Amino acid sequence: MALYSFWIFDRHCNCIFDREWTLKTNPSSGTTNSKLNEDTAKLLYGMVFSLRSISQKLGSKGSFNEIRTIATGKYRAHILCTASGLWFILLSDLGQEDLSQVLRYLYSEIYVKTVVYNWLSPVDFADSPNERRGQGFRKIRNRQFLLAVEKFLGPMVN
Amino acid sequence: MDASQRPEMTEHQKQQLQFQLFQDSLPKVNEIVYRMLLNEAIPMAVNVQDRLSEESGGHEDNETEQGLEQDLDAKLTFDPLKDHVPSHKLLQKYLTADEEYQNKVDERLNNIGFLLGQKLSQLLIFSNNPSLNFRDMDLLAVMKFVCRDVWRQLFGKQIDNLKTNHRGTFYLLDNNYKPVESFALDEDMSQEEQTLIEPYLEIPCGVIRGVLDSLGFQEKGQVICTASITSDRESQKTGSSASSRAVLFNVQINPDR
Amino acid sequence: MSASMSGNTASSSSSKKSLKAFSDDIWKNKTAKINAELFTLTYGSIVSQLCTDYERDFAKVNKQLYSMGYNIGVRLIEDFLARTALPRCDSLAKTSEVISKCAFKIFLNVTPQIGNWSSNKDSFSIFLDENPLSEFVELPMDAARELWYSNILCGVLKGALEMVQMDCDVYFASDVLKGDQTTELRVKLNKILKDEIPAGED
């Protein structure tokens, strides 16, 4: 099994965390803030956004038809969208059928415990209205979050 | 199981068991709402400080622009979130504030703890805890009460280590101070982190003062309690997670004058 | 998962039972608990300090408690969603049910009654027969007139609902601490907020 990358988008369409294990240039940093990653984030967001809207329109009115995975020829994207508008996305090889439990763990055991319970950290990463709608740049950088993500996902990378 | 089949259980143990059953039967709430309430008390205390200093600053305008102020008041009742500031930003204000400002915030929190401590010891005394016998309690026994019963109520654990010089000075070590266990800033900001955690030690300091006050140590300045984060090696060895922080509470009790 | 299933069948009568059973299970088996009285005393000490700080200007105390609640609400909602995995509600009726049977149950272990719906169904009341914030509390005369003792709850609900895109007014209509017959919390939905879309996409 192989995990390629992990992404979190917030309710303002901003990428507030990205961790790419396939990039060899900056292996130890959890916050590779390269131009490349920014572009990838926008593309990934766009793909999930479009397919998610379509799948919701295809569902009958009043019931939820939330998108969970998207497979391409090269990878599979696993998606968890919370009612509060957070998206947790894992990219893996095609062999991974279901990572929904892993995503739930990332949300409830890692994000909630190291960001939400962490009073020193914001829970809204857009500092002003002009950092909303995908124009934000702030990321989750707190020590405990980075550590927990690495400890949990690290062993699944290869 | 019949009680007679357990002769090894002493009267005291039976009482303890009964007390535990009684504790379990009391109404409960989710621990997280209590923790969040305690955690938000610190930014709240900062916010109060801001609002009070704004008021005293704008005092002269009050009379000349009363009409405007009433207007403003009317708006306040419509929008209770006017001038709202998120928790982490209030804490950032504390971080950059001067010492006088910080002291005022600390004092406010210490007072909250004091009020809580006074009520809490009454609660613990009236709950018939068999390990409590206040009639012939010496100072050490009182401090043991703080370490065991008070701490267990507040944080679900006991103080890990109690030391004393037998002349009124006590050191209470909590190897994993719960309220701040999730707190962390970016990797290179450990100094700021430390400063921001300090006001989070004020409420328990106040609680200790309040408990001692309700047990008869009521003279002004009789009890002095301070706390600091320690880089205690022991706590890291004994398997607590890397994120746990040890806090040392220093309690000084002067004899009655 | 059972959580998302109960959210999917919003209007069927069986889901009402399952939402209760679902919340009971979370409360009983997956929740760390503390003595309610400790919680009451802690809140009481905070309110009491605020009354001193604002020199018994209770309008200011109310406001402070509300904004304190808001900051808690925007965090508590994530804890709630992580515990329950519930999706967004498709009606305000469903929201009211989740608030009383699920949120109040899981966090405060009480299940307040919902009622007093407005004719156009955009507002309702939460009747707190039991209120863990104010158990055994009595207010002095001056405070009883102006202080909304449990106002923090309004802020919590305001913040939590806003995070699931519901812009609501939340306020107390009455409180037994003021000598009223009931403790009534009013929730009025102003609008459902639109999810943001990236700039330049509209």
From TrEMBL, chain A:
The keyword Cytoplasm does not apply. CDD domains: TRAPPC1_MUM2. GO terms for biological process: endoplasmic reticulum to Golgi vesicle-mediated transport. Coiled coil: none annotated. Keywords: Endoplasmic reticulum, ER-Golgi transport, Golgi apparatus, Transport. It is found in: Endoplasmic reticulum; Golgi apparatus, cis-Golgi network. InterPro entries: Longin-like_dom_sf, TRAPPC. Pfam families: Sybindin. SMART domains: Sybindin. The keyword Transport applies. SUPFAM superfamilies: SNARE-like (SSF64356). Its main location: endoplasmic reticulum. GO terms for cellular component: endoplasmic reticulum; Golgi apparatus; TRAPP complex. Part of the multisubunit transport protein particle (TRAPP) complex. Belongs to the TRAPP small subunits family. BET5 subfamily. This is Trafficking protein particle complex subunit. The lineage of its organism: Eukaryota, Fungi, Dikarya, Ascomycota, Saccharomycotina.
From TrEMBL, chain B:
One of its GO terms (biological process) is endoplasmic reticulum to Golgi vesicle-mediated transport. It holds the Pfam family TRAPP. InterPro entries: NO_sig/Golgi_transp_ligand-bd (IPR024096), TRAPP_component (IPR007194), TRAPPC6/Trs33 (IPR037992). It comes from the Eukaryota. GO terms for cellular component: cis-Golgi network; trans-Golgi network; TRAPP complex. Belongs to the TRAPP small subunits family. BET3 subfamily. This is LAME_0H06700g1_1.
UniProtKB/TrEMBL annotation, chain C:
InterPro entries: Bet3, NO_sig/Golgi_transp_ligand-bd, TRAPP_component. One of its GO terms (biological process) is Golgi vesicle transport. Keywords: Endoplasmic reticulum, ER-Golgi transport, Golgi apparatus, Transport. GO terms for cellular component: endoplasmic reticulum; Golgi apparatus; TRAPP complex. It comes from Lachancea meyersii CBS 8951. It holds the Pfam family TRAPP. Belongs to the TRAPP small subunits family. BET3 subfamily. The keyword Endoplasmic reticulum applies. Coiled coil: none annotated. It is found in: Endoplasmic reticulum; Golgi apparatus, cis-Golgi network. This is Trafficking protein particle complex subunit BET3. The lineage of its organism: Eukaryota, Fungi, Dikarya, Ascomycota, Saccharomycotina. Gene3D superfamilies: Trafficking protein particle complex subunit 3.
